[in-house]
Automatic annotation (TrEMBL):
Cofactor(s) of this protein: heme
Matches recorded under Pfam families: Catalase, Catalase-rel, Catalase_C
Keywords annotated in UniProt: Heme, Hydrogen peroxide, Iron, Metal-binding, Oxidoreductase, Peroxidase
Protein name in the entry: Catalase
Amino acid sequence: MTRPSETEATNKAKASEDTSERQESSGEETPPELTKLRYGEVEVHRGAGGETHQLSPAGEEPMTTQVGTPIADDQNTLTAGPRGPQLLEDFVMREKIFHFDHERIPERVVHARGFGARGTFETYESLADLTCADLFQRAGEVTEVFVRFSTVAGNKGSPDLARDVRGFAVKFYTKAGNWDLVGNNIPVFFIQDATKFPDLIHAAKPEPDRGFPQAQTAHDNFWDFISLMPEAMHMVMWIMSDRAIPRSLRFMEGFGVHSFRFVDASGRSSFVKFHWKPKYGLQSVVWDEAVKINGADPDFHRRDLWNAIASGDPPEWELGVQIFDDDFADRFEFDVLDATKLIPEEQVPVRPIGRMILDQNVENFFAETEQVAFCTQNVVPGIDFTNDPLLQGRNFSYLDTQLKRLGSPNFTFLPVNAPRCPFAHFQQDGHMAMQNPKGRANYEPNSWGAEGGPREDPSRGYRSFRASVSGDKRRIRPESFADHYSQARQFYRSQTEVEQAHIASAMIFELSKVDRVEIRERVVASVVNVDEELASRVAEGLGFARVPEAMPPAVPPRDDLDESPALSIVRNGPKRFHGRRVGVLVDQGSDANMLAALVRAANDEGAEVALVGPTRGGVEDSEGNTLEIAEKLEGGPSVLFDAIALVLSEAGAKRMAMKPAARAFVSDAHNHCKFIAHDAAATELLDKAGLGPAVRDDGYCPLDEDASATTFIDACRELRHWKRKPA
Ligand code: HDE
């Protein structure tokens, strides 16, 4: 064994002989006896003793400890002798491990899995006649925003395509303070009173004894709770619908859910409901696709959003408002304070008031997406709450939960949470106080004059809407909240046939996972009140001998509500293929002209083509060009694409027809009602996958000349060929 003193001496001697390497790398003294290794961009030098040294590029600041002490060696701890014990004195290693040990913070109790992006909101025109909210005063006003999308039930590591509500939380950094519009992609909620929220979430989350199932409502506890809470039935229709499995965060609506108030400068108020409408239309996937996407790419939604922003095709939404007054509220069939109800757009149209573009990905996921703290209580002058009991409860919960999660009342100083406008208050101290009051005064009133710190401003400060309130102090649910089924029925009946079939299948799937038969029966008994035909479909799917008697409703459901076409996704498709992806299956010898025509047609539409092939190593097309493969076939199933095309030589089609993954690629696309383009040779693959001429409907587009690529992309504007679905 070499003694350390000997090694050091030899190294010193060798280092003095060779200076060339030193000059090349950092200009600083190069550690002795080093072999250069490259890890990507990083140059690492390994010494004779096996130790490695990563040299900071010339002119750049070196890596330091948290307090700025430069670090010479981040690869090896300080030991007594090369194979000796580690020394407690090693502050570099201790600080590093200490910090690592404390990296995790509690995940959100709900909406743990989220994905954020930055952007801007632009006001279309002044809304001064409705609200004095500063961001709505001037046409063209641009306000910075941060948005976090989320699923609700799953933990941070759960898959993106869980059947669930999506959170749609927007923080507006306005000149008069932060306004948080903490909404969902569904305009109603399960419960009417905030005090039921812990029960709802306990029932939905993994069962407490066994800790599963994860990110699913398909289990006994959830449906047990639902079967005993008929007020949830409207929301249940929404989560069993395709709204709960969006194709992309970019293609879903957002809703403020509650009725809020706009208040103008004179104190006059109107009710307002907020809506986000995606520029590129609504789109969802089908359940079998969602299940497969979760396996193929559990990050499907976040990757999609990240890529859209990174590729310069930022998603966009219009903010719209439904404005109504007390008269309407009195006339409306339901209570506007009941969050299990919506106001159909056909009754109160949505007026667009601005647009939001998300054009910047975060720089650090933890700093922004994790640390962002939305609070429904964050409102600005001109925007106020109503007495919706769910909203009132939320105003307590969000502030409280941020303290638990972020560990200090000073979370508002974190860059993602701090207002962009000046702020001044006497809140002080506490963990991580980054900005304490300056000067002598930290209280008010005070008589310190100009040095006395911030003062109230009655002319610009927040004033609550002056509502008169009276009543007996009681725990009671208003009678006006008693109708639990009419809007559930209206929602179901406003769906297209395909969407109704999806709701029925989703209920059958979920209830089939429920072990206790009396829970299944109670749910179906409740569904009878929504729609008898739906109830009998579900009963049949569950193998019931008969449809159960209707659960006695608190008030009989109404049959006189008009259908609301705005509630259907299929009826509100974009009629465009912009922002979507075509997966093109290729192999050696694929036709170069056809591929070029497909890329042109897709790009003209604002869509993307991704080549799927046998290896990532690339294949040669018919003209000998090497094609870059985006997805290896086995890792790039057709569920990752909105439509597929098969461009194969005869030999290529023969090879593909032998591969189970290629056959699944086409048969899944068929079953998910996708448009399928194919050249003549590719029929061999289709035939082998059981998609012979008799099965190939007009959702199949033959690729026989260049123009057919455009015909195919035009067809894709329908997004799905729903006619293919058996009735
Ligand atoms: Fe939330 N909700 N919620 N919620 N919620 C949270 O706050 C709560 C409700 C929503 O991306 C928590 O920061 C109660 C409706 C979103 O960071 C918590 C009630 C709507 C997000 C909380 C509701 C929402 C949350 C957990 C019943 C749509 C994610 C972590 C009264 C309008 C925000 C956190 C983000 C998060 C409480 C119901 C939307 C515990 C008590 C209705 C989008 O405070």
